[in-house]
């Protein structure tokens, strides 16, 4: 039996940039699968004298897997940002990352009260804004790049006058209009949540709703249904003045206050009216799986949830590199909101862990659905070592795994003309620890059977999110 090498290589930098027309390929790509998988995530954890403390603060690197004529091509480029240049030049960074100490002196912090130095290290997600491919993190600083060459084009500012100090890296696209919905937070003595819409083709955030809040919660994503916008306020909250006074890294200012429960703030999607708050058991989540209005008119909100925020602590690089002892993923939980009683009740959707959830978004986002795909964990201490498919109606699941192989977020690509929700493939970037290489895995989304695998000559650090852009025919 071969000894396990482990996931740790996925948390080390990759300084190389590569352009390769055709990678070694095992198996066969479906003939209809033509397009580009764009991925975002950390590329470098150390630059000059600068060392990241947390997985989420790695300096952004873009990856593109091109699937065409049965071949898989590859390209990766580091995102050229002010943060990267500062780190290269001085071994320090000034922008406020997730858990990065920026060493800003108290006087500077107080002078810039509630005007934090926003990071442009946009390493989380990729969306399309006014015809540009942009990278996002949790600051309102989109960084545009060339979707073909992956060259950085620079910050693409919004064209409105709204000041936000934090904004979601997970805006949601409306399938009909192409508009983007998002939310952000303005920190002040009384802070505000802002929900906004960016009309297709525009860079203007039009404010739909504002909700004043004394102690804003850390929220990484939110939910959009046909008629509602929902903020899931987990009881991980911040007194904004503390952030200015302590100078601690952003996330270390938040406190876990489970007695608050999880507060679902429901808004009318068009009028922006705050329709009410439903309170449920305390939990924490980075990712919403989906949300929808059921036949009875009740709102269902599905999360990849954890019982508390401890997962944030466990994703610091030092404990991660030392090794995990606990399962590394959330569980699919459904909260049913009862707006009359102001209550939210919770059900577990499957007996298998799940993180980095993806659905057939084009067809099911904001609507009743059946299948969710995600990363999972089965060997304790192995971070992310399987892919999971959960049938949220039946409560059943399927698994893909392989010894010493660590997959990332599975992106669902529907087969053109398909009628079944799960008729298509999953694309996941995997780390094969035994050979110190990464690659692209293509699974049949119906069965989770492997269809093809392309292998790179080196490893890629574990990334976060991305999109498949099908070729226009
Ligand atoms: Fe995310």
UniProtKB/TrEMBL annotation:
One of its GO terms (molecular function) is metal ion binding. Fe cation binds at residues 170, 220, 287, 465. It comes from the Bacteria. Keywords: Dioxygenase, Iron, Metal-binding, Oxidoreductase. Binds 1 Fe(2+) ion per subunit. GO terms for biological process: carotene catabolic process. Its cofactor is Fe(2+). Belongs to the carotenoid oxygenase family. PANTHER family: BETA-CAROTENE DIOXYGENASE, CAROTENOID ISOMEROOXYGENASE. This is Carotenoid cleavage dioxygenase.
């Amino acid at each position: 039996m071969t000894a396990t090498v482990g996931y740790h290589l996925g948390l080390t930098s990759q300084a190389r940039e590569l352009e390769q027309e055709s990678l070694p390929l095992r198996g066969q790509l479906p003939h209809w699968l033509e397009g580009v998988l764009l991925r975002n995530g950390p590329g470098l954890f150390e630059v000059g004298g600068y060392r990241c403390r947390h997985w989420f603060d790695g300096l952004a690197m873009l990856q593109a897997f091109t699937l065409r004529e049965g071949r898989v091509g590859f390209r990766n480029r580091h995102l050229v940002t002010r943060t990267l240049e500062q780190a290269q030049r001085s071994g320090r960074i000034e922008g406020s990352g997730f858990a990065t100490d920026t060493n800003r002196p108290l006087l500077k912090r107080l002078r810039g009260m509630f005007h934090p130095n926003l990071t442009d290290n946009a390493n989380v997600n990729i969306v399309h804004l006014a015809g540009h491919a942009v990278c996002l993190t949790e600051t309102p600083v989109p960084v545009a790049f060339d979707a073909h060459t992956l060259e950085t084009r620079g910050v693409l500012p919004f064209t409105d006058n709204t000041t936000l100090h934090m904004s979601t890296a997970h805006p949601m696209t409306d399938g009909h209009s192409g508009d983007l919905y998002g939310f952000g937070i303005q920190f002040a003595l009384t802070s505000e949540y802002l929900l906004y819409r960016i009309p297709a083709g525009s860079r203007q955030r039009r404010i739909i709703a504002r909700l004043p809040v004394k102690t804003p919660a850390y929220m990484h994503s939110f939910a959009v249904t046909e008629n509602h916008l929902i903020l899931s306020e987990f009881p991980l909250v911040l007194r904004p003045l503390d952030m200015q006074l302590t100078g601690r890294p952003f996330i270390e200012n938040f406190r876990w206050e489970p007695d608050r429960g999880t507060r679902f703030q429901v808004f009318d999607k068009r009028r922006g009216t705050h329709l009410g708050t439903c309170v449920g058991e305390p939990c924490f989540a980075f990712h919403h799986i989906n949300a929808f209005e059921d036949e009875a008119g009740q709102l269902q909100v599905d999360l990849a949830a954890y019982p508390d925020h401890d997962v944030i602590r466990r994703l610091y690089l030092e404990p991660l590199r030392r090794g995990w002892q606990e399962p590394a993923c959330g569980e699919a939980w459904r909260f049913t909101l009862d707006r009359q009683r102001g209550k939210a009740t919770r059900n577990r959707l499957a007996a298998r862990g799940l993180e980095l959830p993806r659905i057939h978004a084009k067809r099911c986002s904001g609507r009743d659905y059946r299948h969710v795909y995600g990363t999972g964990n089965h060997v304790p201490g192995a971070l992310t070592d399987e892919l999971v498919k959960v049938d949220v109606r039946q409560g059943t699941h399927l698994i893909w795994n392989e010894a010493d192989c660590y997959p990332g977020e599975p992106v669902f690509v529907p087969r053109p003309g398909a009628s079944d929700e799960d008729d298509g493939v999953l694309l996941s970037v995997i780390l094969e620890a035994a050979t110190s290489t990464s690659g692209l895995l293509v699974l049949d989304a119906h069965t989770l059977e492997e269809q093809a695998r392309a292998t790179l000559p080196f490893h890629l650090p574990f990334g976060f999110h991305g999109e498949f852009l099908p070729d226009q025919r």
